[in-house]
Design goal:
GO terms for molecular function: transferase activity. This protein has 172 residues and is of the alpha/beta class. It contains 4 helices and 17 strands. The chain has a single domain, classed as UDP N-Acetylglucosamine Acyltransferase, domain 1. The protein is globular.
Length: 172
């Protein structure tokens, strides 16, 4: 189960009430910063923008590929560990605006995590250290440390222990 906070709405669907939940100028600032970062090929510049302007927690030597889309509304709820690779066109969400409610949840990505291109990470998810996310995966629940996961819906392909056994066999 994802760890999200739920907030009910009484009027029109929750997206119509977006500026009751997040300030308009914050969204504009975040949108501009994220669009600049999405297109810049300079990894240090991206990380500086994310850390210093929109308050994401980004570890050392973490790499965001071109076109990665962090959450525009609540990027400060994203925490990425050291030495990760976030693949091309990946989306990291910390909010969900639904009909009768909206949900907010932090995304925690551990150290040395590899996320394949075109993946989507939903709010309230934790990805453990050393995990590998296959390309085009919908990460809708927590990923154990060291696991290799993929698909839609996401499934565990190999656990950490299975990956270690497989690597030991390949080294022999």
């Amino acid at each position: 189960m994802r760890k999200t906070e739920r907030f009910t709405v009484n009027r029109a669907n929750s997206l119509w009430q977006i500026y009751d939940t997040v300030p308009f100028w914050k969204v504009i600032r975040n949108f501009i910063v994220i669009q600049i970062a999405r297109y810049t090929p300079f990894l240090e510049v991206k990380n500086w923008l994310y850390r210093n302007i929109i308050d994401m927690k980004i570890g050392e030597t973490t790499s965001f590929a071109l076109m990665v889309m962090p959450d525009i509304m609540f990027p400060e709820r994203i925490k990425v560990g050291n030495n990760c690779v976030i693949g091309y066109n990946t989306t990291i969400l910390t909010h969900e605006y639904l009909i009768k409610e909206y949900r907010l949840g932090e995304v925690h990505i551990g150290d040395e995590v590899m996320i394949g291109a075109n993946s989507t990470i939903l709010p309230g998810v934790t990805i453990g250290n050393g995990a590998i996310i296959s390309a085009a995966t919908l990460v809708h629940k927590d990923v154990p440390a060291g696991a290799f996961v993929g698909g839609n819906p996401m499934k565990i392909i190999y656990t950490k222990e299975e990956m270690e056994r497989k690597n030991m066999i390949n080294e022999e």
